[in-house]
Here is the input.
Amino acid sequence: MTVADVLLLALGAVAVGSGALVVTSSHLVRSGLYLVVSLGAIAGLYLVLGAELVAWVQILVYVGAVVVLLLFAVMLTRAPIGPSPDLDRPALPAALIGGGIGIGLAVLFADAFRWVRHPYPEPATAERVGEQIFGAWVLPFEVISILLLSALVGAIVLSRPDIGARAATEGD
Amino acid sequence: MPLWLDLLIRVAAVMAGFLVLPLVIGQAEHKVMAHMQGRVGPMYAGAFHGWAQLVADGVKFVQKEDITPRDADRAVFQLAPIVALFPYLVVILTIPLGPGLVAQSLDIGLFLVLAVLGIGVVAVLMSAWSSANKYSLLGGVRGAAQLLGYELPLVLAAASVAMAAGTLSLPGIVEAWQPWWLIWQAPAALVFFIAGLAEIRRPPFDMPIADSELVFGYMTEYTGLRFAFFLLAEYVGIVVIAALTTVLFLGGWHGPFEETFGWLWTLLKIGALSFVIIWLRVTYPRLREDQLQRLCWLVLVPVSLAQLVLTVAVKSLL
Here is the structure.
């Protein structure tokens, strides 16, 4: 086992463990904080694999923005300190679906790549990523940017009552 | 030089900078504010113009009792100050002082800096929620809204200078920098500096800790060493924002005799910008919450987007 292997196993264990805590903890806000740990550990995995850019994007987008928005929303509605025993979560079906997908994917990957040894790819420098995105993958990139733009416009329309309300009354 | 010695020197240098620079800035703040308000400030500690005042403050903080409120979420409450301090420590690792004089040179250092600075919001929310205090929670919610909003112009302004330099590495940006960029990138520099001020919640952007209405916002319940950690984070924040503005927009180590005195130029520029940050605190009244959001979304974001267009236009003409 190389250092990279050990790091991958350790970070993977942290990611899976804190991920399990996210869904099993009965402290609402704490499970959001466990999500920070889990996503941070995944960023660490990317870093070990040499995908530096993806790792920092993971931190910037998921830890710095998505989880923060989630925590923000929870704190604006109901965020008691301590456990919330009244949460109704069907634990058994969720465990079945989650565990099933996890084991299924693991079996699938283990079967597909069993005896193939992959060399580590070259480190993903910003230059290489840029060349790939704006060279070979420019069409998907543009399609995704249109999708994001329309989501942005939609969010503005929904959140501004002056535009949204007028459209609704005119439609009636 | 063996690897471990190299590593030890780098870590020691970063820790020294991390501990000494905030003390210098803090003492400068005491003195500058005092003189601007017709006072003399601390004069007794350490005999000469009160130079040891902050050391004395540190000793005082260590002696104070470390209180965790009964209803607080203990673990989260105690972890929050460390989470607040940690991002700045990482950022200091990547800031180049002179040519080749950087603790850790990274290919995409700018990206790392922006990503890690975003973690500060988590610390604000952690401390705000876990304190079990209305004022803390209000301050934290305000703080999170402010940090999320101002991160956008901060990133856009940094993107502009990265596009101009054609690299995401901080030493690379300094090397590519030309004096006429001071004019070309001026709007981005202003936006970055203002958004940076809001990111470290300094006056006039201190709505989250507005002491006259929210006691001290999300820091209300903290005492002793943990409170000192938050204060330290604020002063390291000043250093970090001044240093980033220096490196990205003011040409870092460029100046006369930059081969030998490059590091001095960087430190001088950081000092001058820190002085401006202190000066702004004494000059401007606190922005109201709606004014603060309005400035961000209606002024800074459009200006930084226009700067991106300008950057691309000039870059493609050259």
Remarks:
- Chain B has a mean pLDDT of 86.
- DSSP finds 13 helices and no strands in chain B.
